[in-house]
UniProtKB/TrEMBL annotation:
Protein source organism: Hymenobacter cellulosilyticus
Domain AAA: 607-764
EC number(s) recorded for this UniProt protein: 2.7.10.2
Domain of life: Bacteria
Name listed for the protein in its UniProt record: non-specific protein-tyrosine kinase
Keyword field: ATP-binding, Coiled coil, Kinase, Membrane, Nucleotide-binding, Transferase, Transmembrane, Transmembrane helix, Tyrosine-protein kinase
PANTHER family listed in its UniProt record: FERRIC ENTEROBACTIN TRANSPORT PROTEIN FEPE, TYROSINE-PROTEIN KINASE
């Protein structure tokens, strides 16, 4: 019959008139530390095994994983210039500053470029990798190979192919490889070419080839450029450490620490060389451009100079504006001189008029300069002398005429002298006037010439400006290019790359991966985690009662004791065993239960004890039969009633028939005396269930059942009733109400913990204050629920010294199997 605990329990309580299940408090919840510790103790070996498994996995991982080494160097990249010491902080300093390494990302790309990779391949010979096969892993023979391979490959299928090499003699070796899916193998001699279609190899020995080296197995791989570049890209890392300090870290990882270190050192070297080469190339290209441009500009400048020189030779001038100023000044000077000559001619005319008027002075006291203003400007001393003499003669003549008449000889002499002087003066005046006129004419000619030249100067100025423009342009460009050439020459000489290796690449000591400590820690943590997970799974899957502690924790019923597992013989049905082994552990445990029963019902001489359980298979009949046997051995008269009419088993325990019994007594077909059957113990009788009736519950509720009990009380001290499971039918509850001591059987490692909730609900719903529980079929771990035995102190440890049974010798495998289960 299927067991539905909640549904059956509700039906059971409703039929008994009890409370609803929802009103019953759920007990036994929370974390059961005792069960958890029990599960943990049972899982210790599993935990140890899982930890050992984790550590073994870590060891295998370390054993079969190649260690990865990392070598790194720290570079400081900067530029400094000495051009400032030459006073060229301006243009040259800016040019050097523009070419300095301010953007380190560009330097990172340069380091990881094919330019550096190609130089690495050329200097370190990364195209051929040599390996020696070990017990588990292969090892690369970087710089330590006993042979060397030179190759010429035309067929690309030979690249990235594994060539196995085994020495078969002092100079002979066997070469095997896979080509187009077919394996090829042949024997060759060291130093002689290996020629196959599409490939030619030359394998020579190195000083490391000795007898020990010939016994090992080798192979090599010829890499193409793509494979080498991919290898470098994968393992090379270039990081900017401090942009302000211009520091870059170059790191390389490889299975071989020496190879990683050499690659980092070589990268530092070739990077410096490449940077210097690039800088020199850039400077050389700049200087080459300047030289070429200077040559072209010099030719154009020479042509412009020749044109300007031809113009100057033709026009006798280099500065037309200055010539205009000169001509203008000359015109002004000429005009000023001409005006002076005109003024002098006018003065000569005035003198000639005065001379013709026969007077030079107006008064006797007047001088010549007073009579003729401006006479000093004549600048002719002879004329001035003659005029002074004329002036004197005229003054003497006027003085004589006041005293003498004109006929006087003295007067006549003065008049003759006066005429003579005037004649001289007229001659001098005429001569001076001719000279002045000639000068004035020459000045007029020069004035006309200057005016003509002045009119032609604008055209010359335009032509000169046209010739000066290309000359000045080429001259300026030429001077600028010359300056730039000087600046770049100084920059080339004064600018040096400040490339410092702050931390050179050293030989890696410990691998970066795998880290042994971390791997073992992970293995240990994994084993512990799996062990804890196992404990958690086993704890949450542990839904059966295993010991007295769990039974007491989950139920409010008193625990009478614990019955250990009976494994002396295999029983298909419950049997009476206490009479056969009265000093065995199971007999002593049931004897302890009998003693506890005496404490509970010591005042009553006649007792009715009912034995029930939740479901079938929990040992209810076994406990009933053997408890009855133990009580009967104490000189009490005991009768066992089998009221499990649906599935009777008491008769099977005693090997009797079930033709008549309780069912036939209740329907008054047989009497009690007719149905009583005797056992091997004189004071122990039993009444089987009899044929299964259609209405067992109605028979138990009938008055005839009570009359049967009263009649049995007259002949027996203890009535033991084997009732049906209360989790399946309600008959057991009806009987438990009539019993003085209802006993509830719980089977260790079989009964569910949820069954104990039914016990608590039965106690509350039916007020079974004397309901007791027995833990049946308990193992050794379940016996020591308290730590000092089982039951209430009268358990397994009380009678150890006089047991008849002997413990079988248990082997190590059996003990381990029990421990793991």
């Amino acid at each position: 019959m299927a067991v539905n605990e909640n549904a059956e329990l509700e039906e059971l309580i409703r039929s008994a008139g009890g409370a609803e299940p929802n009103a019953v408090e759920d007990e036994g919840g929370g974390l059961d530390l005792t069960t958890l510790l029990l599960v943990a103790r049972r899982s210790i070996l599993w935990i140890i095994l899982l930890i050992a498994l984790g550590l073994s996995a870590s060891w295998l991982l370390l054993r079969y994983t190649k260690p990865v080494y990392k070598s790194s160097s720290l570079l400081k990249i900067d530029e400094k210039t000495e051009a400032g010491a030459l006073g060229l902080d301006g243009a040259v300093g800016q040019a050097v500053g523009a070419s300095s390494v301010n953007k380190l990302s560009g330097e990172v790309e340069l380091i990881k470029s094919n330019i550096i990779y190609q130089r690495l391949k050329d200097s370190l010979e990364l195209n051929v990798n040599y390996y020696v096969e070990g017990t588990v892993l292969e090892t690369e023979l970087y710089g330590a190979s006993p042979f060397k391979v030179a190759y010429k490959i035309k067929d690309p299928n030979f690249f990235n192919t594994k060539f196995a090499l085994n020495f078969t003699g002092p100079q002979q070796f066997r070469l095997s490889y896979l080509y187009l899916g077919q394996e090829r193998s042949a024997t060759y001699t060291l130093g002689q070419p290996v020629v196959v279609p599409g490939m030619e190899l030359l394998i020579t020995a190195t000083p490391l080839l000795d007898e020990g080296a010939r016994e090992k197995n080798y192979h090599f791989v010829i890499n193409d450029d793509g494979a080498v570049n991919n290898y470098l890209n994968t393992n090379l890392s270039v990081d900017i450490v401090n942009p302000d300090a211009n520091t870059i870290q170059i790191a390389f990882t490889d299975f071989n620490p020496a190879k990683a270190r050499d690659i980092v050192n070589k990268i530092d070297t070739v990077y410096l060389q490449e940077k210097l080469a690039k800088k020199q190339e850039a400077t050389a290209q700049t200087l080459q451009f300047l030289d070429k441009t200077l040559a072209e500009n010099q030719q154009q400048l020479q042509k412009a100079e020749e044109n300007l020189q031809a113009f100057v030779r033709e026009n006798k001038t280099y500065d037309v504006k200055a010539e205009v100023t000169t001509i203008t000044e000359k015109l002004a000077e000429q005009e000023e001189g001409r005006l002076k000559l005109v003024e002098k001619a006018r003065l000569l005319g005035e003198i000639s008029r005065l001379v013709d008027q026969d007077r030079l002075t107006q008064s006797e006291d007047a001088t010549l300069e007073q009579s003729i203003p401006g006479i000093a400007a004549i600048e002719d001393p002879q004329l001035t002398q003659q005029l002074s003499e004329l002036n004197g003669i005229q003054w003497n003549l006027r003085r004589l005429l006041r005293s003498y008449n004109e006929t006087t000889e003295a007067v006549k002499q003065q008049q003759a002298q006066l005429t003579y002087v005037k004649s001289n003066i007229r001659r001098l005046l005429q001569q001076n006037r001719r000279l002045l006129q000639a000068q004035i004419d020459r000045m007029n000619q020069q004035r006309a010439q200057f005016s003509a030249e002045l009119q032609t100067l604008p055209q010359k100025e335009t032509e000169l400006a046209r010739l000066r423009r290309p000359f000045e342009l080429y001259e300026k460009s030429y001077l600028m290019l010359m300056d730039k050439k000087v600046e770049f020459s100084i920059a080339k000489a004064g600018t040096t790359p400040d490339f410092q290796i702050l931390s050179p690449a050293s030989m890696p000591g410990a691998p970066i991966s795998p880290v042994r400590t971390m791997i073992y820690a992970i293995g240990l943590a994994g084993g512990i985690a799996l062990g804890l997970a196992l404990i958690a799974v086993r704890y949450f899957m542990h839904n059966t009662v295993t010991n007295v502690r769990e039974l007491e924790r989950a139920t409010s019923a008193s625990v009478l004791g614990v019955i250990p597992t009976y494994d002396k013989e295999k029983m298909t049905v419950s049997k009476l065993v206490v009479d056969k082994n009265p000093k065995s552990a199971i007999s002593e445990s049931i004897r302890s239960i009998r003693t506890n029963l005496d404490f509970i019902s010591s005042a009553k001489k006649k007792r009715l004890i009912s034995v029930t359980s939740t479901i079938s298979g929990e040992g209810k009949t076994f406990v009933t039969v053997n408890l009855g046997g133990i009580i009967a051995l104490s000189e009490q008269r005991v009768v066992i009633l089998d009221l499990d009419m649906r599935k009777p088993k008491v008769n099977l325990a005693f090997g009797a028939e079930n033709v008549k019994g309780v069912s036939t007594i209740l329907i008054e077909k047989h009497t009690i005396l007719e149905c009583i059957q005797h056992t091997s113990i004189p004071t122990l009788d039993f009444i089987s269930a009899g044929p299964t009736p259609p209405n067992p519950s109605e028979l138990i509720l009938s008055a005839k059942f009570d009359e049967m009990l009263e009649e049995l009380y007259q002949h027996y001290d203890v009535i033991l009733i084997d009732t049906p499971p209360v989790g399946l039918v309600t008959d057991g509850i009806l009987i438990m109400r009539k019993a003085d001591i209802p006993i509830y059987i719980v089977r260790a490692n079989y009964s569910k913990k949820s069954f104990l909730k039914n016990v608590n609900k039965l106690i509350r719903a039916n007020n079974f204050t004397r309901l007791c529980a027995i833990l049946n079929d308990s193992t050794a771990s379940g016996l020591y629920g308290y730590g000092y035995g089982y039951g209430y102190g009268y358990g397994y440890g009380y009678g150890q010294g006089y047991y008849e049974e002997t413990r079988p010798v248990v082997g190590l495998f059996s003990r381990l199997r029990k421990r793991f289960t």
